[in-house]
Amino acid sequence: MGFNCGIVGLPNVGKSTLFNALTQSAAAAAANFPFCTIEPNVGRVPVPDARLERIAAIAKSAKVIPTQLEFVDIAGLVAGASRGEGLGNQFLAHIREVDAILHLVRCFEDGDVTHVAGAVAPLRDIETIDTELMLADLDSLEKREAGLAKRAKGGDREAKEALELLARALAALREGRPARAVPLGDDERAPFRALQLLTAKPVLYVCNVDEGTAATGNAMSDAVAAHAAREGADSVVISAAIEAEVAELPADERAAFLDSLGLAETGLARVIRAGHRLLDLITFFTAGPKESRAWTIRRGTRAPQAGGVIHSDFERGFIRAETIAYDDFVALGGEAAARDAGRMRSEGRDYIVADGDILLFRFNV
User: Fold this and answer.
1) I need a labelling partner for 204 at 20 to 30 A (CA). Which of 39, 104, 152, 333 fits?
2) Closest by Cα among 90, 98, 106 to 37
């Protein structure tokens, strides 16, 4: 089960620099001109989780395998992208394929780095991107409206339900609100996702600041944080330039370098964790002498489907999941002690996996 976040923003805000640092590669061409990235670059990165190292130490595991998150570097959008300006239609199609959006916003002044609009103004830049995505969604829905209406009149129940959701999304977009602002019932989420709306995707605002304000942020990143809060979204402050420097350093020198800048951890670690939260993901673990491993699932996933992330046979032949809560595993010193203390539970197919569970699946196929 893969989850991915698309990095979007105007040209020259630091998307490719961030992507390169995330993947510790030079896969994306970072250049001081628009449209240097034509095809989206994809990289998978480990999700930092101190619990996994603790579990592996207790289980005396030979290997430690973290869960991963996929990032997609999508070329810069410009005003008019929804009408094909720049390479807009192609880029919008790439955004449609991701699960969530990391909206990178330039929050630094630098006369040597051009701005596509001539001046740095983060909230205007956000509005430019949001407008293009909303216009693309409006166009998509208006093209589908007549066809759905015809099917609904013919008695097609699914078309009638889709038309009602479409109408609510259109109303929001015409008022200048993104589709994610539409309130939904639990049974409406899946059909709403089927509409494949760009502005229905969850968004994390990533403020790219200069090196001097990486630890504290600045007035521009504060304005973006306030905007995110009004939307019910989250924001993270990073310096893509610092992250690129850190990525080039040997692992044993990184902590000292960050400390010299007043940073406790990389901005990338915060971005990755925030992306994990953005997708409403949780982590469960498997542990043993061969390996300890982290696995990613959506919150609310039941035990058989969690097992299916490891192997389809685990879901198909599911019998039970022997479950230990992370705190019990650590406090008692591992699986055997947890079992002896009565803290290993046998859970059936209706069990909803909790974040941090250590699971052992019993199955028969």
Assistant:
1) 39
2) 90
| Alpha-helical runs (H) found in the chain | 15-23, 50-59, 88-96, 122-153, 157-174, 189-193, 219-231, 240-248, 251-260, 267-278, 303-310, 312-316, 326-332, 335-340
Helices (H), 60-115: 88-96
Lowest mean pLDDT: which of 27-36, 120-129, 228-237, 269-278? 27-36
Decide: 99 and 70 in contact? Cβ < 8 Å: no
What's the pLDDT tens digit per position in 208-243? 999 899 999 999 999 999 999 998 888 999 998 898
- Closest by CA to 265, choosing from 294, 296, 238, is 238
Rounded to an integer, what distance in angstroms lies between the CA atom of residue 10 and that of residue 237?
17
| Phi then psi dihedrals of residue 102, to 5 deg | -100, 110
Strand runs labelled E in 24-67? 41-46, 63-65
Which among 311, 310, 335, 337 is positioned nearest to 323, based on CA atoms? Answer: 335
Secondary structure class of 85 (helix, strand, coil): coil
Q: Spell out the residues 6+ positions from residue 152 whose beta carbon is closer than 8 angstroms to its own.
A: 159, 160, 163
Residue 78: predicted pLDDT = 56
What global pTM score does this model have?
Answer: 0.80
In this prediction, residue 27 has a pLDDT band, given cuts at 50, 70 and 90, of: very low
* 47 vs 292: which has the higher pLDDT: 292
Determine the distance from the C-alpha atom of residue 162 to the mean position of all C-alpha atoms in its chain, rounded to a whole number: 26
Phi, psi of 11 (to 5 degrees): -60, 150
Write out the two tokens for 330: 């650590």
Alpha-carbon span 304 to 308, nearest angstrom:
6
The CA distances from residue 210 to 13, 157, 161, in Å, are 12, 54, 48
182/185 Cα distance (integer angstroms): 10
pLDDT higher than 80, residue 31: no
CB-based burial label for 176 (10 Å; 0-12, 13-18, 19+): exposed
Q: CA 171, CA 66: separation in Å to the nearest integer?
A: 42
Cβ contacts of residue 330 below 8 Å, gap of 6+? 54, 55, 58
Q: What angle do CA 179, 219, 105 make, to 5 degrees?
A: 40
